[in-house]
Amino acid sequence: MRWPKILRLRLRSLTSRRQVEDELDEELRYHFDREMDENLAAGMSRDEARWAALRSVGGLEQRKEECRDMRGLNLIDNSLQDIRFALRQLRKNLGFTLTAILLLALGMGASVAIFAFVDATLIKPLPYKDPAQLVGVFETVPLFPRSNLSYPDYLDWKKMNKVFQSLDAYDQRGFILTTAAGAEPVRAARVTDGFFRTLGVSPVLGRDFFSGEDLPSAHRAVLLSYGAWQKRFSGKPEVVGQVVTLDGEPSTIIGVLPREFHFAPAEPAEFWSALHPGGGCDLRRSCHSLYGVARLKEGVSIQTALADVKVIAKQLETQYPDSNRDQGATVASLAEVITGDIRPILLVLLGGSGLLLLIAGVNAANLLLVRAESRRREMAVRSALGASKGRLVRQFVTEGLVLVAAGSALGLAISWWTMQLLTRLVPENLLLRMPFLIGLSLNPRVLAFAGEIAAMALILFTVTPAFHLSFGQTREGLADGSRGSAGTSWRRLGSKLVVLELATAVVLLVGAGLLGKSLYSLLRVDIGFRPDQLVTLQLAAPKAAYEKDEQAIVLQRELVRRIEAIPGVTSVGVTTSLPVSGNGNTTWFRVIGRPWHGEHNEVPERDVSAGYFTALGAKLIRGRFFTEAEDGSKPSVAIINQAMARKYFPNEDPLGQHLTYLSDPPKPIEIVGIVDDIKEGPLEVATVPALYIPFNQSASRFFGLVVRTAQAEQQLLPAVTSAIREFDPGIVTAQGATMTTRINNSPSAYMHRSSAWLVGGFALLALLLGVVGLYGVVAYSVSQRTREIGLRMALGAQPGSVYQLILKEAGSLTAFGVVIGLVCSTGAATLIRGLLFGVKTWDVQTLAGVAVVLGVASMLASFIPARRAASVNPVEALRAE
Amino acid sequence: MSKPTDLVQGTLDMLILKVIALEPMHGWAIAQRIRQMSGEVLQVGQGALYPALHKLEQSAWITSEWAVSDNGRRAKYYTLTEAGREVLAHETAQWERLAAAISLIVRTA
Is the CB of residue A276 less than 8 Å from the CB of residue A218? Predict the structure, then answer.
């Protein structure tokens, strides 16, 4: 009851200033008059009475001030005055103010933006129930440390394991959706019935899959992603129960998944269909098409789970030696499966932005020191006039607060803008696979991080000058001659800070150099074909019309013929998997005529058309390419790459040798050619042995097209798509892009490029800040030594020797910074070696280049103050004191 | 003497509260009353009185209103509030205990 009243009183004191003042005045005057009346009554003369009253009052103004104090007005008044004074001071020194604000904003903007990515990827929990209990389950083969499960293996693991509450499987695939407008490719995932229960996700609308609903006998059911529900069905609730046609099969929509749900390994998926194993692959134990996800039992660690699945894999290996030889098993936390690839890059970027923040902070501290130094006399005067030390410190705190508030506001704006920019720069195909990055924002965690930076900055901005103040005796500040000695002490500290800045800049520059060089070598890696003037496209033909091999062969021939007829097209090829995508789709084989004890010979297999290698521009090493006539009626043939020739035929001629799949009886395939290694997998992965089979002997209704043109490749794509549509509107196409774009946007190229650019940006800023810091120190030193320099020149020193004097000082600072920086950067490079490609951690070229760049930049920066020093007029310099 | 340095810290507040507990009063009258009641021993100058009054008002132990005084001029009258009354009772009890304790020591010595 008392507090509201107090608050009202305080507010009144504040808002009705005039009235409160008047009342105070009237109240005290009343007292004064009564006092006077009393004195008059006691028989004093009028003057005497007045004086006596005044004496007893003892100064009206002072009394008023005391009353104001009691009303708590002064605290507010003083703070306002402090802020006004701070603003005036900061405005008077606009250069300092803007630089300090900009430094803070830059450092904060970069690190907060990067932190937002780190938060979204590594800190924010995945949108599942108890995500820490979830693991990804894989088989392993020599070629892939994490390979797929086959459906029969999955069923056995599910039955035999003792460590999972539940184990489910998923795969990612494209479906053809039949719509009113025709056929459309859609991204989809197939999951086993318990998949969403394992994740602990329930649909927001409709229901989850029933147990057993994923079996071939069950009616087909699909769940919609929230996005698909909004986009394709305008968010109508009646969608549940509706039937859609996916790959020619009617499927019932049974529900809609939550908006925040995402599952990166299967994204981007609009339709989540129950598995329905079938077709040529799913039911074979040797065909691996699924990934596993499991929830660990209470108290079971990943290690225990790993040991358990390894035992199962061993058992299956003994039980099914034909299909499971060398099929191991592995388990990893789901968070690691989802974000493992991008984690090291994010940590490097976080480290980079941290270093930038450090350098910005050190620069700001240096700036504050110079300013405190130049205000030494102001502070001395104010303290001589009676300002207490506390009052002076409060002034610094107020100035710091104003600077930090402005810097943080600008920093947050920069970070928000950077986040938007960086997300926009991620190629769409990659962003869709990193759904956790969508909707990046300044959430409370990110804001708290920004708050921590602001708090540290505030401490830096207030403690530095306050510390400086208590360091030197304020009284000395008034004495003229003391300036030199105080300047020296500052110069020593400032120099140390500059060395720290330069060393940090070196570390960032070396990091950027190494990452840049990695990117360069990555993009120049030998891919075995000419990527320019190539257009690529992925297509899927409807099952009803093209399921049989003959139908697919006709399709291939017809499409190649029609596309070749497009003006400008020089050659067209077909492959089951486009290059620079992955080493998947493998096959097992053995060489006929050699003893075989069930060795696991696994290589990627690509079924390609006769014109494929020509269209790609791949080089034939020996033998011949396929011919269009080679189909099922002709003897089976194959082309191998050089890696395969080296690995499997080290001392003999592969041409004329016969391979066979692990079929019984063996079906010989003659090797007719050796082609130069084509990069089928990611750019940074060494090319593995690969086997090429004629498309016409192993046809498929899903394949990729490569089209070589003599003209600009961008304009070709629409013509190719319309030629396909003209042939059969039921065929859907996707991922149309030029080969160059495809390579540049491939995950590994993108990851390397973004880290190189970002760290490069940080390094440039760091270089700029470091050099500006050096300039500040040297320029200040020159201004402090003007008299000394004047004296030297008066005694006969030549401008050359003055240059030498100044440049030597700058040079030794730079040398220290560079040496310390180089030592630290070899350490830092070891930390990022996982991201380096084709470059050593101690790449001499990079290290030397950085040293030269920093040296030249530093000399340029110190040349300006050196020239000022050399042009000092000795007479004026001496007279000035 | 304008500042009652001989007044024990905090007792001025109690005296003011006590004096206006009887009836609303303006500052000058409060000073006079304290002087009279203390047998001319305690002289409260305005240097101490008014800051104390303003502080008590800010603490909501007393309220003020303007009214015409005995000499026909407007004066600011202070009244004790409910909260002030509680504080006064508490302070008085404290004071009595303290005074009794001190006099006990002083007499025996």
Answer: yes
Of A411 and A367, more confident: A411
Q: Which of A381-395, A430-444, A526-540 has the highest mean predicted lDDT (pLDDT)?
A: A526-540
Residue A332 contacts by C-beta under 8 Å, 6 or more apart in sequence?
A: A135, A136, A138, A146, A302, A340
Helix A799-831 crosses helix A844-870 at what angle (to 10 degrees)?
150
Whole-number percent of chain A with pLDDT over 70: 94
B6 pLDDT tier (thresholds 50, 70, 90): very low
Render pLDDT for A269-286 as a digit per residue (tens, 0 to 9): 999 999 988 877 788 888
Rounded to the nearest angstrom, the minimum Cα separation between A29 and chain B is 10
Q: Does B58 touch chain A (CB under 8 A)?
A: yes
Asked if A35 reaches chain B (Cβ–Cβ under 8 Å), the answer is yes
Residue A76 CA to chain centroid, in angstroms? 45
B107 interface with A at CB cutoff 8 Å: no
- Nearest-5° angle of CA B51, CA A78, CA A393? 120
DSSP letter at A519? H
Smallest CA-to-CA distance from A224 within A211, A237, A213 is with: A237
pLDDT of residue A818: 93
Chain-chain contact of A72 with B59 (C-beta, under 8 angstroms): no
Minimal Cα distance from B44: which residue of A? A56
* Rg, Å, chain A Cα set: 38
* Whether residue A8 has pLDDT greater than 80: no
Is B73–A66 a contact, with Cβ atoms under 8 angstroms apart?
A: no
Interchain contact A69–B (C-beta under 8 A):
yes
Contact A304, A117 (CB under 8 A): no
Looking at CA atoms only, how far is residue A72 from chain B in angstroms? 9
ipTM: 0.84
Amino acid A387: pLDDT: 67
Question: Strand A637-641 to strand A669-675: parallel, antiparallel, or no bridges (unpaired)?
Answer: parallel
Show Cβ contacts of residue A789 under 8 Å, excluding neighbours closer than 6 positions: A782, A797, A802, A805, A869, A872, A877
Enumerate domains of chain B plus CATH numbers.
11-108 (1.10.10.10)
pLDDT digits (tens, 9 = 90+) for A86-113: 888 788 778 888 888 988 999 999 999 9
Name the amino acid, one letter, at A733: T
Which of B26, B54, B66 is facing A70, going by the closest CB pair?
B54
Q: Is B73 on the interface with A (CB under 8 A)?
A: yes
